[in-house]
Amino acid sequence: MKVALAMIISAIALVAFLSYLTDRVTDDERFAHFEEACRTAQEQVFSNVLSNSIALEYYPVSGVIEQDYYPTKLASELLSEPERFQTVQLLFNSDDLSSSRPRTNLLCEGSFIISATNKDQLKLGLCGMVGGKKHYRQRQSKTNVSDVVIRYRYGPRNKYDVRKFIFLIEDYKNGELLALQSSYQLLLGQMAEKENRVWLGWGAAEGTRNCQLSPPKDFVLSVVEPNG
Q1: Strands 177-187 and 205-210
Q2: Reduced to 3 states, what is the DSSP secondary structure of residue 56?
Q3: Tens digits of per-residue pLDDT, 69-105?
Q4: What is the pTM of this model?
């Protein structure tokens, strides 16, 4: 009886191991699937606008840092010369900062804006505090958000660690879609080979590889004239 049971357990373990080998994806397969997906990537501009300010959705604890698309990086570039906006806003919700944060301070709860006129103001801490000091944060309302907002949309991650990525620009007041990039991202945190694996932010966020479309700053400036 014990021998039969041991044989059954061994057979189950063998099937599980063979299934693991079959399902395991190599880095070459990941790269190939990503490149194939990127063949359908495209960008479209539907309308051009003038605005001295622009806002970006920001999810600080997303677990992914997507190179030049990452909101704080892009916001910093949009405040840089020679073409720059007078004000760049980060739009975030307190729930996006930390799901485990104690709900003890009502002043910390809700939707907020950091309105920056220079790159040094693009700092974010819990409750809008950086180094124990209040830092450029205000409550978000329908009247203090820029007329133009950059939004990020993501599809589910597939077995090749590739996900759909939509980078869109819209009119905040009427919801009109001004432009979008429809593409894909390859998430690099689970790559099999160490040299291909990328973790950023002290190991808290995966790096990505993006489809080769217009760089995000150039794309934004092709849609929104910052001297309006």
Answers
A1: antiparallel
A2: strand
A3: 999 899 999 998 878 899 999 998 876 665 555 555 5
A4: 0.83
Cα separation, 164 vs 181, in Å, equals 11
Spatial neighbors of 194 by CB under 8 A, at least 6 apart, are: none
Peptide bond into 82 cis (omega under 30): yes
- DSSP 3-state helix, strand, coil percentages of the chain (rounded to 5)? 30, 30, 40
Q: Is residue 155 classed as helix, strand or coil in its secondary structure?
A: coil
Under a CB-based contact definition with an 8 Å cutoff, are residues 206 and 64 in contact? yes
Structural contact between residues 90 and 75, judged by C-beta atoms closer than 8 angstroms: yes
Residue 49 · residue 224 · CB < 8 Å: yes
Q: Which residues, at least 6 apart from 86, have a Cβ–Cβ distance to it below 8 Å?
A: 52, 53, 117, 226
Tracing tokens 């030049």 back to the chain, one arrives at 68
Pairing relationship of beta strands 129-130 and 133-134 according to DSSP bridges: antiparallel
**What are 125-134's pLDDT values in tens digits?**
655 555 555 5
Residue 73 CB: number of other CB atoms within 10 A? 16
Q: How far apart are alpha carbons 31 and 155 in whole angstroms?
A: 18
Asked if the model's pLDDT at residue 18 lies above 50, the reply is: no
Beta strands (DSSP E) in 129-203 are 129-130, 133-134, 137-139, 148-154, 162-171, 177-187, 199-200
The DSSP secondary-structure symbol of 176 reads: -
CA-based nearest residue to 56, from 85, 82, 99, 98? 85
